[in-house]
Design brief:
MscS_beta-dom_sf; about 15% strand; 3 domains; transmembrane; SH3 type barrels; LSM_dom_sf; Mechanosensitive ion channel family protein; about 60% helix; Alpha-Beta Plaits; transmembrane helix; alpha+beta
């Protein structure tokens, strides 16, 4: 029936009728799909269709009318106007298809990650999967965009000639591009290596360039580290395969923190050790694993006392260290002020001089 209708209007001189028919057909298809999807979502127990609708609704509603108009225009009378319109809607169809496929990738990522709890305390497995999915998604997006651009280019006669020329000179071009883009290629290969060997993962606590922070983004060519004071440190992705750096959460999130105090020799170490244990018992950030206080060094006027304590992750360890340091100093100021370092002067030796 639709084919007969298209044939009846094909004799009209201006193809606007064909555009209207294609647009109406696309709107009807979108409407039927929307109703069917709504009914299916109500019956289904999974959130997958809801996620697909969230990410792909707009792209699908654009793709279907464009595709319908392109199909109907092919039944129009062969004129210069119709050929221009067909070429135009072919390009729009390619762009709409690329947009739709990219949205599908985002939906698939969301559906996959919906099965994992990223916010739980021990989320090393989830962060590993998140890193791989995030990288692969970006690779596929680049591939889809390049294929779409190539299809648009090949839709023109001049583009086909250019493509044939490129094929005949592929050997020379590959060498030239290899030298010109070797840095970009090395970054891309480093990204693949990081995605699967994973010296870093999303939300890893790292120390790079003397700064401490968390891995916020892993892109195709660079990594964004969110520093503790909310600044962002941007590093080329090759940095993490070529230079040494500290990863505090490589295999597990637990970490030991330290508090260093420079105290007088009159400090009652046993009382200080007991106070440390008392403080840790009341600290919500302490995981109950490690507690220790030792004299690690001695100097002319002071001794170095190191307190060790453990926490479930680096942010909690940082807060724990700061809290314990404050409470130990307050204890010494109030109960043992003689423990605070002082500068001694030998008066007798000065008088003899």
């Amino acid at each position: 029936m639709l084919k007969d209708l298209i044939q009846n209007v094909s004799d009209l001189s201006f193809p606007v009728v064909h555009i209207i028919i294609g647009l109406v057909a696309g709107v009807i298809i979108n409407w039927v799909v929307a109703i069917s999807l709504t009914i299916t979502v109500k019956k289904a127990k999974s959130n997958d269709l809801l996620i697909f609708r969230k990410w792909c609704k707009t792209a699908f509603n654009t793709l279907v009318p464009v595709a319908s108009i392109f199909i109907v225009l092919n039944y129009a009378e062969d004129t210069d106007t119709s050929r221009i319109l067909i070429k135009t809607f072919l390009i729009l169809l390619i762009i709409a298809s690329v947009h739709f496929l990219i949205r599908v990738l985002y939906a698939m990522e969301d559906i996959f990650l919906d099965r994992y709890d990223i916010d739980k305390e021990d989320n090393r497995k989830e962060r590993k999967i998140l890193t791989q999915i995030n990288f692969l998604k970006k690779v596929f997006i680049v591939v889809i965009v390049l294929i779409g651009f190539a299809l648009i280019l090949l839709s023109f006669e001049e583009g086909r000639k250019y493509g044939q020329t490129l094929l005949t000179t592929a050997g020379v071009a590959s060498v030239i591009l290899g030298f010109a883009a070797q840095k970009s290629i090395s970054n891309f290969l480093a990204g693949i290596q990081i995605a699967f060997t994973q010296p870093i993962k999303m939300d890893d606590a790292v120390v790079v360039e003397g700064e401490w922070g968390w891995v916020e983004e892993i892109n195709l060519t660079y990594v964004v580290v969110r520093i503790w004071d909310w600044r962002r440190l941007i590093l080329p992705i090759t940095y993490f395969v070529e230079k040494p750096f500290q990863n505090w959460t490589r295999n597990k999130g637990e970490i030991i923190g330290s508090v260093i105090l420079h105290l007088d020799y009159r400090t009652p170490v046993e009382k200080l050790r007991s106070k440390l244990e008392e403080i840790l018992e009341t600290e919500p950030n302490w995981d109950g694993q490690v507690k220790s206080l030792q004299i690690t060094d001695t100097k002319e006027y002071t001794m170095t006392v190191r307190a060790l304590m453990s926490a479930k992750n680096s942010p909690m360890a940082w807060d724990l260290r700061c809290s314990v340091r404050e409470k130990l100093i307050a204890f010494l100021q109030k109960e043992h002020p003689e423990s605070l370092p002082v500068q001694r002067l030998d008066i007798h030796a000065t008088e003899k001089r």
